[in-house]
Design brief:
Elements: H1 29-36, H2 48-63, E1 91-92, E2 96-103, H3 122-125, E3 133-140, E4 147-154, H4 159-162, H5 181-190, E5 192-201, E6 204-207, E7 215-217, E8 222-226, E9 245-247, E10 252-257, E11 263-267, H6 285-290, H7 300-303, E12 322-325, E13 335-337, E14 349-352, E15 357-363, E16 367-369, E17 371-379, E18 395-402, E19 407-412, H8 429-434, H9 436-443, E20 448-449, E21 451-456, E22 463-467, E23 491-497, E24 506-514, E25 540-545, E26 551-555, E27 568-572, E28 582-587, E29 593-599, E30 605-611, E31 642-648
Parallel strand pairs: 8-13
Antiparallel strand pairs: 1-28, 2-31, 3-4, 4-5, 5-6, 5-7, 8-9, 10-11, 11-12, 12-13, 14-15, 15-17, 16-20, 17-18, 18-19, 19-24, 21-22, 22-23, 23-24, 25-26, 26-27, 27-28, 29-30, 30-31
Length: 655
C-alpha cells in the first residue's frame, strides 16, 4: 500500500516503545529520582546500593503501620553461579537439569500432526504449540505440584525464522511481497496461547496429549468484550454491530494467574498489526497516534479487512486489553476485561489484599509510559470459584505518580474526576478506558522507563517494577546520581503500599538496583559489591517471586553487542546485608530472550520460555541460515522457541 513509507519487522515490535509517543510534560522517573537523591545520597558503582538500603529500611518502617512479615529465607541463594556469555545453546546452574518440555510445532492433541517445517499449514499450527511463548503459568490439578495445567502466551511470530524462502524482507517492503495468504494464516494460528496438561513422572515432566483440558487459542478465536467499554460505539465494526464480540488476541506478552484459577493474558504491541492511516480529522486519529498505530509489522492487513484501518477504523480499539481465560473449560469464551484499561500491557500480576479485594498491577511497556493498578469493587470468594468470574469487570483503575520525597500516589482513572470530563473528550468511563494513555497523561502520571512486569511479594507486601530501559532519555532530564540519560540498561523500583494495604492510594518507593556493568563507573549501576562479574545484568523484563519470597529476574536485550552476554535468569536478593546482590542461574542461546519465569507451589520445578532464539544481526538470521538450530540441532529443523522446565538433580527445592 502506497501510504506505508516503511514497515516494522515483527521482531521490532518489542522495541517499538522507542517511538516515544507520549507528548506530555509530565515528570519522568529520572527527573523525580534526581530530586529524591542528590550526589551525597548515592555512591557510584557497586557500593551505591548500601545507601539505598539504609534509606529504604528507615522509610519502610515509617510508612507501614504494620510491618510486613519477613520472607522465610530472604537472602539465601545456594546455587553455583554460571558464567555469563553467548553461544549456541542454553546453560543452567550446576546440579540442575533443564528439560525442553514444549517446542514450537509440538502436537498438543492425539490427532495433531507432527511438526514438518517444510509442509506447515494453518490447520496443523492450530493443533500445535504456538510461537514465541512469553508468560507461563502453572495451575495445579487437585492441589498437586507435579500435575497441572500449563498456560502459555504465544506473543508474536518471526516470519524469517519460521518460513523457508521468506528470508529477511527489506524494511522498506511495505507490501510484504514474500508473504502469502497461507503464511499469514499460519502466523494467525501461531499467535494467542495454549492450555496444556502436564504431569511429572519419574522425575520428568510430560505432556498429556489426550487431556480434556488441552486447548489452542489463536488470533482468530471468538472472544467476548466485557466491562465498561463493551458495546460502546467505538468498539463496533461491520462484523460486530454489538461491539461485544471480537476475534482473537494478539501480541500477548506477560500475564498472571488469579486465586480462582483463571489465566490473565495481556495484549501488548497490538499497534503493529494494522495497516493504513486515518485522516488527521478522523475521530480516532489522535487516539491511534498515542498508541503508535500506523507502521505495520505484519502482512495481515493485506489479506484481512479487519486489520485495514480504511475498512475497519474501529478495530484497533478492540485490542490492547487484559484477557481472562478459564483453563479448566476448553469451551470457555475468553473475556477481554476492559475495566483494566487499554495499553500495551506487559503483565497483570495480582494479589489478594488483606480486606479481600483483588489488586492487579499493570505496566504499559513503552518508553515514557506509566504504571497502573486495578482494585476490584468486589471481594474474592475462596469458597465459590464461579462467584469470582465477574470481579475484573467492576473496580477502580489507578495510575502511579512518584513524588520526589519517596512517596507516591495512585491517581484514579475515573470519568468525571479531575480532567477526565466531557470537556476533554471523555463522555463516559468507556472513553476513558479506550484512551487510557491520554487519560493518564491528563492526570499527570509519572513517565517511566518502559514499565514491564510488576509483581507483589505476598510475604513482604513489597511490589517490584521492572523498568527495561529508555534510550530516549535526554541529558537534561537527569543528573549524575539518576538512572541514566540514554538509559540502556534499565532499573528496578521497589514500592511499599501504605500500611501494607495494596488498595491504599498512597505508597513509598525506592530504587532497588540500577542495572548494567558496575565495573564501568559511567554506567552508574548499583548492584551490591558482592555481585560477581557474572551476576550483573541489564534490561530487566519479567520477574517471579518463589514461595520463599525470593525475587528472580529474567531479561530482554542482553546480547554480544549490548552487554557481551546472553539474556537469562538472575536471582536478586532484596533484604538484609545482601540486598542488591545478584547471581546468574540460567542463560539462553544466542539471539534468544528469557520469558516466564514461573515456579510450582513447592519450588521444585521452574518453567522458563525462550523466545526468538537465533535472532541476531538485526534480523539477518533466517530459516535456511539461523544463528543456532536450538533446541533440536538437526539440519532439517529450524530454530524453535521453546518452554523448558528446571529441576534439581536428585529432587528438592530450587535454591
Amino acid at each position: 500500500m502506497d501510504e506505508h513509507k516503511g514497515r516494522l519487522r515483527a521482531s521490532e515490535l518489542e522495541d517499538s516503545g522507542d517511538v516515544g509517543v507520549n507528548p506530555t510534560h509530565n515528570l519522568t522517573m529520572g527527573e523525580i529520582i534526581a530530586t529524591r537523591f542528590n550526589r551525597r545520597d548515592l555512591l557510584r558503582g557497586p557500593l551505591a546500593v548500601a545507601a539505598i538500603s539504609a534509606t529504604v529500611g528507615h522509610r519502610a518502617l515509617a510508612a507501614n503501620e504494620q510491618p510486613a512479615r519477613k520472607a522465610s529465607n530472604p537472602i539465601s541463594f545456594d546455587f553455583k553461579e554460571i558464567e555469563a556469555g553467548v553461544d549456541h545453546t542454553h546453560h543452567v546452574a550446576e546440579g540442575y537439569d533443564a528439560q525442553v518440555l514444549l517446542r514450537w510445532g509440538d502436537p498438543l492433541f492425539p490427532d495433531a500432526p507432527e511438526f514438518d517445517p517444510m509442509k506447515q499449514t494453518p490447520e496443523a499450527q492450530a493443533r500445535q504449540f504456538g510461537y514465541n511463548t512469553d508468560f507461563i503459568g502453572f495451575i495445579p490439578l487437585n492441589g498437586s505440584a507435579d500435575h497441572g495445567l500449563l498456560v502459555a502466551n504465544h506473543e508474536y511470530t518471526n516470519e524469517e525464522l519460521m518460513f523457508p524462502g521468506v528470508g529477511v524482507q527489506d524494511s522498506k517492503d511495505a507490501n510484504f511481497s514474500k508473504m502469502t495468504p497461507d503464511l499469514v494464516a499460519i502466523e494467525i494460528a501461531a499467535h494467542g496461547g495454549a492450555v496444556v496438561e502436564i504431569r511429572r513422572a519419574d522425575g520428568k515432566w510430560q505432556v498429556v496429549k489426550d487431556s480434556k483440558y488441552n486447548r489452542r487459542i489463536t488470533a482468530d478465536t471468538p472472544m467476548e468484550i466485557t466491562g465498561p467499554a463493551a458495546g460502546h460505539e467505538r468498539m463496533k465494526t461491520s462484523a460486530d454491530a454489538s461491539g461485544r464480540n471480537v476475534r482473537g488476541m494478539v501480541n500477548n506478552c506477560a500475564g498472571g494467574v488469579t486465586p480462582w484459577g483463571t489465566w490473565l493474558s495481556c495484549e501488548e504491541n497490538f499497534n503493529g498489526y494494522f495497516w493504513g492511516k486515518l485522516s488527521d480529522d478522523h475521530p480516532e486519529a489522535k487516539n491511534y497516534k498515542r498508541y503508535g498505530i500506523g507502521t505495520p509489522a505484519y502482512a495481515w492487513g493485506k489479506f484481512h479487512d479487519r486489520f485495514d484501518l480504511a475498512k475497519e477504523p474501529n478495530e484497533p480499539n478492540r485490542f490492547g486489553w487484559v484477557v481472562e481465560i478459564d483453563p479448566f473449560d476448553p469451551n470457555f469464551v475468553p473475556k477481554k476485561r476492559t475495566a483494566l484499561g487499554r495499553t500495551k500491557h506487559e503483565g497483570a500480576a495480582g494479589i489478594t489484599n488483606s480486606d479481600g479485594h483483588y489488586v492487579v498491577y499493570l505496566g504499559d511497556d513503552e518508553r515514557f509510559d506509566y504504571v497502573y493498578k486495578f482494585v476490584t469493587a468486589g471481594k474474592v470468594d475462596p469458597q465459590n470459584r464461579a462467584a469470582n468470574f465477574g470481579l475484573l469487570d467492576e473496580g477502580t483503575l489507578y495510575v502511579a505518580k512518584y513524588n520526589p520525597d519517596g512517596t507516591g500516589n495512585w491517581l484514579p482513572v475515573v470519568h468525571g474526576q479531575g480532567p477526565l470530563t466531557e470537556a476533554n473528550g471523555f463522555r463516559s468511563q468507556a472513553d476513558v478506558l479506550i484512551e487510557t494513555r491520554r487519560a493518564a497523561d491528563l492526570l499527570g502520571a509519572t513517565k517511566m522507563d518502559r514499565p514491564e512486569d510488576i509483581e507483589a511479594n505476598p510475604q513482604t507486601n513489597r511490589v517490584y517494577v521492572m523498568l527495561t530501559n529508555n534510550t530516549r532519555r535526554k541529558e537534561d532530564q537527569v543528573d549524575a546520581a539518576n538512572p541514566r540519560a540514554n538509559n540502556a540498561f534499565g532499573h528496578i523500583v521497589e514500592m511499599m503500599p501504605e500500611g501494607g494495604n495494596h488498595a491504599a492510594t498512597d505508597f513509598t518507593w525506592e530504587v532497588l538496583v540500577k542495572c548494567g556493568d558496575p565495573s564501568v563507573a559511567a554506567v552508574g549501576a548499583t548492584f551490591s559489591s558482592e555481585t560477581t562479574k557474572n551476576g550483573w545484568f541489564g534490561m530487566p523484563d519479567n520477574c517471579a517471586i518463589d514461595s520463599q519470597g525470593r525475587l528472580w529476574i529474567s531479561t530482554d536485550g542482553n546480547n554480544a553487542k549490548a552487554t557481551g552476554r546472553a539474556d537469562g535468569l538472575w536471582a536478586l536478593q532484596t533484604q538484609g546485608k545482601g540486598r542488591g546482590t545478584s547471581k546468574h542461574f540460567f542463560r539462553v542461546p544466542v539471539g534468544g530472550e528469557l520469558c516466564g519465569p514461573f515456579f510450582t507451589p513447592n519450588d521444585e520445578s521452574l518453567f522458563l520460555a525462550v523466545q526468538h532464539p537465533g535472532e541476531v544481526d538485526e534480523g539477518m538470521s533466517t530459516f535456511e541460515n539461523p544463528a543456532t538450530r536450538w533446541p533440536d540441532f538437526k539440519d532439517n529443523m529450524p530454530v524453535r522457541p521453546s518452554v523448558l522446565v528446571i529441576t534439581k538433580q536428585g529432587g528438592g527445592k530450587i535454591a
